[in-house]
Amino acid sequence: MHLLAIDWFFILEKLILIALVVTLSMIVAMYATYGERKVAAFMQDRIGPNRAGPFGLLQPLADGGKLFFKEEIIPLASSKFLFVLGPVLAMVTALLTSAVIPWGSPALIAGRTVPLQIADINIGILYVFGVVSLGVYGIMIGGWASNNKFSLLAGIRGASQMISYELAMGLSLIAVLMLTGSLQMSTIVQNQLDNGWNIIYQPLGFIIFFICALAECNRTPFDLPEAENELNFGYHQEYSSMKLGFYLFAEYINMFISGVIMSTLYFGGYDIPFVNEASWGISQNFLAFISFAVLMVKACFFVFVFMWIRWTIPRFRFDQLMHLGWKRLVPLALVNMIITALVVLWLQK
């Protein structure tokens, strides 16, 4: 019997990368709450958090500690197992989407080339959509398991919204796949390195994708599942302590990962604009660090835009939200897909 040789370095490399990506996502989610309050304060001519630490920088730690030490309350009428499963599912699906993202150019460690990507599978985008579609179960289960009519209504709203906007998002993405010829995230980035960013060829597709990303993350003006003036507090109304924290953190992680995915699909990923990195003559590891920093800047810009939109645009009515998704974005995405297909066919002749 031949035993397969185990590449322990490969396993260790992936475990470290998973730990780093999870830690990065959690830290960004923590400080996105701080950033949101500061952006809101700036737009409303206020100061924002300024008590915990210099410039209020320790406020996310204070908020996290508050949620962690609060009393756990599970309603007697709730379905207890599903009540706990809802926020766990929301958090896990939010973190799983980061597994196929190329976070930077490959690094050189112990003589080995290490890609800064947990899993470079050939169906990367399909994997992202599969995991994102599971995220709706976290909202639905949390809303239903609470046995609260307001939470249930919010859960139904969230499911209807996410299903509706995933269709337009998928159609807008097909146009990118036609240009690239691959579902693999690393191939999509490499194609942009060779031929220019997809935003140049797919401006309409990006706008549709961006609007759908707002809806998928339940961000204003699509925050109907959390409409406080209609549904008290939305699908997580009955939650407290870290279960509530999981739901809130999952929203900010989704927002961050959405920014990274948009940067990867349309803005060259870790590519530095108007620069030929190969001509710099710097070490491979330093280049990997710079490329990672560039991707973070792009992603944080999108997070800022998400926050900017929240504090400047009013919420849609639910009928307006569904009308926009089905009667505007889906036809536009179909037209964009057909035009892209015709252009690709014409270029191949």
From TrEMBL:
Spell out the reaction equation it catalyses: a quinone + NADH + 5 H(+)(in) = a quinol + NAD(+) + 4 H(+)(out)
What Pfam families does this protein map onto?
A: NADHdh
Annotated localization: Cell membrane; Membrane
What's the protein's topology in the membrane?
Answer: Multi-pass membrane protein
Q: A Gene Ontology molecular-function term?
A: NADH dehydrogenase (quinone) (non-electrogenic) activity
Positions of transmembrane segments? 15-34, 81-104, 124-146, 167-187, 199-217, 244-266, 286-309, 329-347
Q: Supply the alphabetized keyword list.
A: Cell membrane, Membrane, NAD, Oxidoreductase, Quinone, Translocase, Transmembrane, Transmembrane helix, Ubiquinone
Q: Does the record carry Membrane as a key word?
A: yes
- What span is annotated as the signal peptide, if there is one? none
**InterPro entries assigned to the protein according to its UniProt record, in alphabetical order:** NADH_UbQ_OxRdtase_su1/FPO, NADH_UbQ_OxRdtase_su1_CS
Q: What is its EC number?
A: 7.1.1.-
Record carries keyword Cell membrane: yes
What is this protein for, i.e. what is its function? NDH-1 shuttles electrons from NADH, via FMN and iron-sulfur (Fe-S) centers, to quinones in the respiratory chain. The immediate electron acceptor for the enzyme in this species is believed to be ubiquinone. Couples the redox reaction to proton translocation (for every two electrons transferred, four hydrogen ions are translocated across the cytoplasmic membrane), and thus conserves the redox energy in a proton gradient. This subunit may bind ubiquinone.
- Entry-linked NCBIfam families: PRK06076.1-2
What family, per the record? Answer: Belongs to the complex I subunit 1 family.
Oligomeric state and interaction partners are given as: NDH-1 is composed of 14 different subunits. Subunits NuoA, H, J, K, L, M, N constitute the membrane sector of the complex.
Q: State what protein this is by name.
A: NADH-quinone oxidoreductase subunit H
Q: To which species is this protein native?
A: Niabella yanshanensis
